[in-house]
């Protein structure tokens, strides 16, 4: 994964790079490093740990220079330590590189370079790449840009790189394949980063490099973009950024995750704004309207995604099948890409991804396209790789999600997918007019209900968190639309509090997991009034008779479950199909409070990164 930042211009580079790295720390945070060039000398400081540790460490070097590059790492090759941190220098110490990605064939390349006398200090694939560039440059007497291009043509893998040559200190060479890279274009200055957040206060003009493109970012010269393979020149396409500074700051909240949980009423509204006109009975989404026939003629919809986005896909399976009667299958992108799946011309593949950069989902999309499927993306990050790789799509408009645990991405993905299901149902006539209008009306008022759910559940979630913060395990149960919510609740708890948690369909419990239940086992049961309420009540009885501790999510005013459960959390009433948008709120808050009480790093949990750009 990793985050990269570069600057070349007239300002001091160090503060720009450090601030940029802090904004990109969600991409990886096990080590960090910086390189600065002050006109004479190239200085590097790097360390295991976070960007704040780097700030301490880099007090040892002079921090001046108007050219700089920085890196925040999520280790792939080599443990997180000072030496394996980026930037890496070539043997001559003329070249410096930062890299996000994996060079898969680094071993044979390394062996070859060792034969030619190169010495390696780190265990990384990146140090191989910088020395390969050096070797090509020296052997063929090439300029840096050409040497990078020749070297990259020998490399198998994924990369977003910045390379600096102290012998040619007015340029940084950048390239991408499979990992994101944005270039901020200012007046007499350029910014380079994994996403645009490091430079939004300096410029709103950005160029997103496409796969297999490289650029020479040179002071006082127009940017030149080329294809790495055949050197063809590409016209730079400058996009106007939609992000603002406020969106990427905590805004008074202790953690990004909490801020993002509380943003849900507004962002759900942003998601359907201009698309859902409930009073007129209209849903219009450009990506669907333009491809309506394809959707209506689809034999099957295949959904590919990972993690929380996969859970949103499961909710969508229930909704789309129920509303449209189109068969839906949901696959982990990581399995799909490697299992020779049956993909037909009349299949539609929907790829769901918050970041739009998840390597497995991207690979699944490529496979689906190769097999002739029409691929529709549901992404949050505008201009991301998945949004560009898909034939059409719909953005979720959730705004930047920085906490590693996905929250608002999940609810906005469900909102988009529900609108798609409703639009298709209308066109197919698979929902009655009155049901269609009822769902539209209900979706329109869901943001107010999410707001109400936040107000109703936060304090009680905190109280329950205090009781269960030291648990070793936790079960989450739900049925129907709320089975995926049980999976999502369990994922939230395990990823940020490190408590083992499992989600199950409530009725499956008797086929095994019930053996786990004793008086130590908290069991979160999602039991809203709509849906399979009576069946869930029976499941609660089964847990109670085995002394499990029941935490039930119920509809406001429920009395039956209240009598059985140890703790209840009430949420507003809504339709069965939309209930995941409300039931998920107390589960997010419960995980959040437990993680805070356990002193865990909520926004940057161990071993994780926000955007998983490696397979
Ligand atoms: O950016 P994506 O939606 O493609 O990411 C997929 C997963 O990596 C992501 O949902 C992950 O599971 C989150 N940490 C869950 O909170």
From TrEMBL:
Tell me where it mainly resides.
cytoplasm
Q: Which domain of life is it from?
A: Bacteria
The UniProt keyword set, sorted, is: Aminotransferase, Cytoplasm, Glutamine amidotransferase, Repeat, Transferase
Q: Which InterPro entries match?
A: GATase_2_dom, GFAT, GFAT_N, GlmS/AgaS_SIS, GlmS/FrlB_SIS, Ntn_hydrolases_N, SIS_dom, SIS_dom_sf
Where in the numbering of this chain does the Glutamine amidotransferase type-2 domain appear?
2-220
GO CC terms of this entry: cytosol
The molecular function terms in GO held by this entry are:
carbohydrate derivative binding; glutamine-fructose-6-phosphate transaminase (isomerizing) activity
Functional description taken from the UniProt entry: Catalyzes the first step in hexosamine metabolism, converting fructose-6P into glucosamine-6P using glutamine as a nitrogen source.
Oligomer and partners? Homodimer.
Protein name, per record:
Glutamine--fructose-6-phosphate aminotransferase [isomerizing]
From the broadest rank down, the organism's phylogenetic lineage runs: Bacteria, Pseudomonadati, Bacteroidota, Flavobacteriia, Flavobacteriales
Its encoding gene is what?
glmS
């Amino acid at each position: 994964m990793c985050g990269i930042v570069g600057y070349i211009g007239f300002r001091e580079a160090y503060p720009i790079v450090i601030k940029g790295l802090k904004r990109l720390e969600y991409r990886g945070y096990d080590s960090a490093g910086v390189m600065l060039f002050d006109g004479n000398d190239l200085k590097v400081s790097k360390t295991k740990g976070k960007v704040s540790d780097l700030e301490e460490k880099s007090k040892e070097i002079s921090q001046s220079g108007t050219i700089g590059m920085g890196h925040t790492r999520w280790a792939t090759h080599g443990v997180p330590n000072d030496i394996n941190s980026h930037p890496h220098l070539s043997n001559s110490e003329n070249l410096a590189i930062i890299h996000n990605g994996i060079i898969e064939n680094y071993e044979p390349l390394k062996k070859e370079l060792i034969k030619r006398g190169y010495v390696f200090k780190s265990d990384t694939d990146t140090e191989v790449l910088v020395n390969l560039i050096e070797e090509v440059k020296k052997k063929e007497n090439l300029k840096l840009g050409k040497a990078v291009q020749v070297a990259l043509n020998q490399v198998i893998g994924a990369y977003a790189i910045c390379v600096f040559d102290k012998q040619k200190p007015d340029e940084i060479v950048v390239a991408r394949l499979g990992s994101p890279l944005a270039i901020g274009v200012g007046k007499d200055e350029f910014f380079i980063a994994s996403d645009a957040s490091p430079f939004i206060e300096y410029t709103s003009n950005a160029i997103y490099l496409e796969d297999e493109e490289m650029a020479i970012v040179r002071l006082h010269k127009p940017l030149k973009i080329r294809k790495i393979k055949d050197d063809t020149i590409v016209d730079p396409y400058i996009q106007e950024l939609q992000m603002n500074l406020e969106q990427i700051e905590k805004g008074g909240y202790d953690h990004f995750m909490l801020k993002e949980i509380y943003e849900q009423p507004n962002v759900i509204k942003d998601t359907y704004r201009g698309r859902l006109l409930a009073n007129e009975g209209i849903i219009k989404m450009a990506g669907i309207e333009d491809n309506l026939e394809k959707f209506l003629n689809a034999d099957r919809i295949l959904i590919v995604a990972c993690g929380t986005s996969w859970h949103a896909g499961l909710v969508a399976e229930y909704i789309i099948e129920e509303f449209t009667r189109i068969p839906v299958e949901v696959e982990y992108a990581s399995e799909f890409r490697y299992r020779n799946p049956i993909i037909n011309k009349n299949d539609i593949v929907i790829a769901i991804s918050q970041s739009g950069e998840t390597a497995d989902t991207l690979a699944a999309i490529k496979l689906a396209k190769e097999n002739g499927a029409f691929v529709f993306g549901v992404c949050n990050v505008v201009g991301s790789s998945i949004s560009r790789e898909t034939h059409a799509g719909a953005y979720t408009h959730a705004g930047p999600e920085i906490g590693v645990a996905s929250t608002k991405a999940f609810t906005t993905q469900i909102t988009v997918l529900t609108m798609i299901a409703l639009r298709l149902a209308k066109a197919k006539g698979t929902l009655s007019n009155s049901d269609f209008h009822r769902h539209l009306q209900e979706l329109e008022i869901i943001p107010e209900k999410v707001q109400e759910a936040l107000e109703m559940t936060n304090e009680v979630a905190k109280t329950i968190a205090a009781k269960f913060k030291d648990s070793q395990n936790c079960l989450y149960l739900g049925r129907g639309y709320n089975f995926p919510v049980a999976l999502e609740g369990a994922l939230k708890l395990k990823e940020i509090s490190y408590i083992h948690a499992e989600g199950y369909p409530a009725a499956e419990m008797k086929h095994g997991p019930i053996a786990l239940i004793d008086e130590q086992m908290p069991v979160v049961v999602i039991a809203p009034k709509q849906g399979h309420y009576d069946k869930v009540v029976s499941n609660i009885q089964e847990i109670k008779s085995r002394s499990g501790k029941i935490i039930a999510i119920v509809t406001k005013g429920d009395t039956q479950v209240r009598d059985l459960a140890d703790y209840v959390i009430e949420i507003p009433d809504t339709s069965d199909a939309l209930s995941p948008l409300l039931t998920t709120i107390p589960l997010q808050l419960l995980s959040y409070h437990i993680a805070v009480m356990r002193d865990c790093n909520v926004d940057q949990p161990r071993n994780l990164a926000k955007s998983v750009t490696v397979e």
